[in-house]
Write a structure and sequence with these properties.
single chain, mainly beta, 2 helices
Length: 95
C-alpha cells in the first residue's frame, strides 16, 4: 500500500471495475483501498460526442471497485481538448 502514499495530494486517474473513470486529487485511502478524491470529476466517454466531464467535488470510491490508480500528468492533461476526443466506454471487469 505504500505506493499510494506518494500520490497523496496529487492528481490521479482511477478506473473502476465497473468501467468508470474518475479524476481528482487523492486526499487519502485506507487499508482496503477506499479512496477519497477532492476536486473530482468523472470522464464519460462516447463514440458520438466528446468526453463529458461530470463534476463531483469530494468523492469516495470503495476499494473493492478500484481496478487501476495512476498519477495524472497535469501538464499534458490540461492541453487536451476533450470535446474532440471520441472513445468507447470501458466494459465492466468480469470476474
Amino acid at each position: 500500500m505504500s505506493g499510494l502514499e506518494s500520490y497523496v495530494n496529487n492528481t490521479v486517474s482511477i478506473i473502476t471495475a465497473d468501467g468508470r473513470n474518475f479524476v481528482g486529487t487523492l486526499k487519502g485511502f485506507d487499508q482496503t483501498v477506499n479512496i477519497i478524491l477532492d476536486e473530482s470529476h468523472e470522464r464519460v466517454y462516447s463514440m458520438t460526442a466528446g468526453i463529458e466531464q461530470v463534476v463531483l467535488g469530494l468523492h469516495i470510491i470503495r476499494g473493492d471497485n478500484v481496478a487501476i490508480i495512476g498519477q495524472l500528468d497535469e501538464s499534458i492533461d490540461s492541453k487536451l481538448d476533450f470535446t474532440t476526443i471520441r472513445g468507447m466506454p470501458l466494459e465492466p471487469v468480469v470476474h
